[in-house]
TrEMBL record:
One of its GO terms (biological process) is methylation. This is SAM-dependent methyltransferase. Residues 97-206 form the Methyltransferase domain. It comes from the Bacteria. InterPro entries: 23S_rRNA_MeTrnsfrase_RlmA (IPR052939), Methyltranfer_dom (IPR025714), RlmA_N (IPR048647), rRNA_m1G-MeTrfase_A_prd (IPR016718), SAM-dependent_MTases_sf (IPR029063). Keywords: Metal-binding, Methyltransferase, S-adenosyl-L-methionine, Transferase, Zinc. Residues 14-57 form the 23S rRNA (guanine(745)-N(1))-methyltransferase N-terminal domain. Zn(2+) binds at residues 16, 19, 32, 36. It holds the Pfam family Methyltransf_31. One of its GO terms (molecular function) is methyltransferase activity.
Length: 282
């Protein structure tokens, strides 16, 4: 391996999704020593999702779901959640943290605000990863102070022990990948629905709502250090209620009558209920 390649490897952040060797930035593309090459999009992101790793032609949320999510998140009904996650990161990130990853970053609603942490951690780089190319393109175009890539959360394109922290809001990731990519004493912040999350929306669909299980997830190689429940009421207008329902996994079960009810809603009360947990790498 050449001296130039070794020097470039020392500052790289990505790992080849095909052979798992280091990717080196050559201004307009990333390339590994085995000549697997991934172009840098004009918006500034890199697509590290090989065709053979895709489960469909365009994995991730469809355009309708993305538009609904953008509309709803822009209302800031989830602002308390974002602030709570930032507070946990501020308190728990290692002192000299340099690399923070948001798994399932979507269009960057949470990711972009994690840059606040650079005031305390001046060397911190903020990364966002999502399987949806359309979402990542939007995020990269809008938030130039973060690093975005299209990739699978089950194949994190980062070298071993590269990350000081990971945020996982509703996003799946294999335990072994978390163990591999997070440094010793690094942290993992997870967000999942708590017992009564969106209870009022579910009441419109189901006969008898089953409350979410709030048992903390056991993640091999990590210790649970903080377990917070964040619960508050939201007051939604018709557009917001419709967009929120479109974001949910039970939207496909929603009848035409319920969609109409949501569309015409005025001051619909709906509970937000989250479990926010911080784990530390052993």
């Amino acid at each position: 391996m050449s001296t130039e390649f070794n020097r470039a490897v020392s500052i790289m952040s990505y790992q080849c999704p095909l052979c798992h060797s280091a990717l080196v930035n050559h201004t307009q593309y990333w390339r590994c020593e085995n000549n697997h090459q991934f172009d840098l999009a004009k918006e500034g992101y890199v697509n590290l999702m090989p065709v053979q790793h895709k489960g469909s032609k365009n994995p991730g949320d469809n355009q309708e779901m993305m538009q609904a999510r953008r509309l709803f998140l822009n209302t800031n009904h989830y602002h308390p959640l974002r602030e709570a996650v930032i507070k946990h990161l501020d308190e728990q990130l290692p002192e000299n943290a340099q690399q923070l990853l948001d798994i399932g970053c979507g269009e960057g609603y949470y990711t972009s605000e994690f840059t606040q942490l650079q005031a305390k951690h001046p060397e911190l780089s903020v990364h966002g990863l999502d399987i949806s190319k359309v979402a990542v393109r939007y995020a990269a175009k809008r938030y130039k102070n973060c690093h975005f890539c299209v990739a699978s959360s089950h194949r994190l394109p980062y070298s071993d022990a590269y990350l000081d922290g990971i945020v996982r809001i509703y996003a799946p990731c294999k335990d072994e990948e978390l163990q591999r990519a997070v440094k010793k004493d690094g942290i993992l912040v997870t967000v999942s629905p708590a017992a009564r999350h969106l209870y009022q929306l579910k009441e419109l669909i189901y006969n008898g709502v089953h409350l979410h299980d709030m048992e903390p997830e056991v993640i091999e190689g990590f210790d649970l250090v903080t377990d917070q429940q964040l619960h508050y009421d939201m007051t939604l207008n018709g557009e917001e209620a419709t967009a929120l329902m479109q974001m949910t996994p039970f939207a496909w079960k929603t009848s035409d009558a319920v969609w109409e009810q949501l569309k015409t809603a005025i001051d619909l009360r709906c509970e937000a209920d989250f479990s926010i947990r911080v784990y530390r790498r052993q």
